[in-house]
Records
---
Amino acid sequence: MLYPGYRMQWVFSNESHLDLAHALSEVPRRLPAHALPRLVDRWLHQAVNSDADVLLSAEAFARHVAPADKRNWLERRRAYLERVRELLRCFRVEPIIVLRRQDEFIDSSYREAVMRNMAKGVLFFGDYVQKRRDGLLRYWDNLLLFEEVFGKINVLSYDDLSRGGELTAAFFDSLGRDVRPLPDVGRVRTSLGAGQTLAKRYLNEFSRLRNRARLRIVRSAVISELLSKRLPPDLGFWSSADDRRNYLQRFEGDNRRIRERWFSDRDSVFAPVAQRDGTVVDDLPDSIKAELRRMARRWWRNW
């Protein structure tokens, strides 16, 4: 199996697995559109020469839309997926979609938005949940579009894959590939904890520092110690299990249809909500905010 890279002399020096997905969307990023056919052609030759399947992995394939005009979300999503199909027409594409329970996915999405300083990365969690009304969580509609555009699709549950603590190995097991004998690359990227997310959100709100500097501040020993001393150890963004269940009620119809279509041998697509949840803190204590401002000012003077 080939997991292709992006480093080529005529492409910006980056190896992001997201760039191809971004380049076909309404917000092109670092990978120029004119480079895409040559890049795919290179992958094709590598795959043919090594008799290997090609694996492209990017969450962005599941959310991007084509450039805006007067079409609605479904039409823009379909147009985007058709762009992907056209670009990869020399391959027989079989999408693999991993579904995560919506309350956990929106939690993860929020932390990502804050960590990457995205437009909604200055919002508090409750506001983020209310404002995130794009197609991100339209699982049923998205699956039907993937199937319409590509034909056969494979639908997996994140809960199934993460059970046993071997998510990556379990994913490749679903493809019939055993990767356990291969060297473990370890943790590639560490997400922010709940306290770090609150601290980063605060820096996003006022700091002019580059995002990398903000991340170094919230992960510093000083801030880490303050967060551990001043915030509850079970800090989270959901106040209770009932809070999660109430949120999940809006997806009951979609989840039922998904179960009937792709998980008919089981009672539910996702694991049930745990009975106990974390402690919610609406905002950081003033002492932590003051230290964040002090460190940001010092970093700015030394930059």
Note: Residues 1-92 form one domain.
---
Amino acid sequence: MMTNSNQDQATPSMDSFASGIKKTVMNFAGVFLALALLGALWSTALARLSERTTAVTLLTAAGTDLINPLLTANGSGLAQGFYQQLQTQAQAHPTQVLAIPFAHVQIKGNMIAGKGFADGTRVIYAAIATAYYDGGPRGAFTLPPQLQALVSNYTPFVQQAQQINSPLPSVPIPQLPAFAAGLWSATGITPTSLTATGHAEAVSRSYLLWGISAALALLLVLLSTGWNRLWRVAWPLFHSSWHIALLGVIGTILVHRDIAHTGPYQGVMDLIGGTFMPVFYGAALAGVAGIIIAFVGRRFTAQAAPQLAATTAPARVLAAPTPAMPPPGNAYTPTIPSAGAPPPATTETPAAPLDAPSDYGSR
């Protein structure tokens, strides 16, 4: 008896311990899933941004609107006067390659002949962007060391450490300080991000992180039941994306709030907003949708459970009543008739007749 009692007391404690371990594992899996999804979404967005067509378009816009004004302000780049010289050479020798000393590109005269400064600059920087995508900064530019370092490390999201002449307006979005440039590089956005090599790295990294995310999501699904399966996966998806999506919305508002001063950045930011940010917008919306569906499903299941239990409960079978046993002799209480009731009928045995033979004499 004592052994059975100890076993009964140990069973609830073991169940409680196992439940606590399961809950801890699920909580850690949810946190790691959110982190893995953040990395997977970020790498996927970089992979989309660094596709050849998108990257060349973005680099062309950045070169035309941002890099060239910085170079011309510091004695290099494609200035108005230099472009007029190129136009003269192009019209005189349309099939010959033009001499562009600050870039490693092959531009023939007929590619820019008769074009205005804006259109011609776009053609030249499109060729520079293609060279940049294939070979990186040093494969596209040939500049003095200070300007080469500027081009190799330029990003509008980090303040420049070196002092240079800049005709550009202030960046419309908050920037990281120069000493935090390494932190920004840790996000995967580097001068080689918009290159063929950077694209291959982003795709490979995204596959790895999506695989880890799928494994963690499967673990949560297996450890959960009912609508909690969707609930446990939807929340990490939402937490991995909503903050980046919010930053994208704020950045878009800041850039378009004062186009007169933020014009040079608008083309670049619009391309980033139209290619990079939709990954996070979609993930955040999918997370919200999953949370809402799981919440409604859980409420519906909770309300339907009592009704389902009532309809599926087994019918109760009424047993035949057990016949009453007569009371014991010492517990018998005679019934006393009332005053007006007739006396109970009695049965008397008739007396034997007088002439009946008797056995007395035979004895």
Note: The longest helix spans residues 2-49.
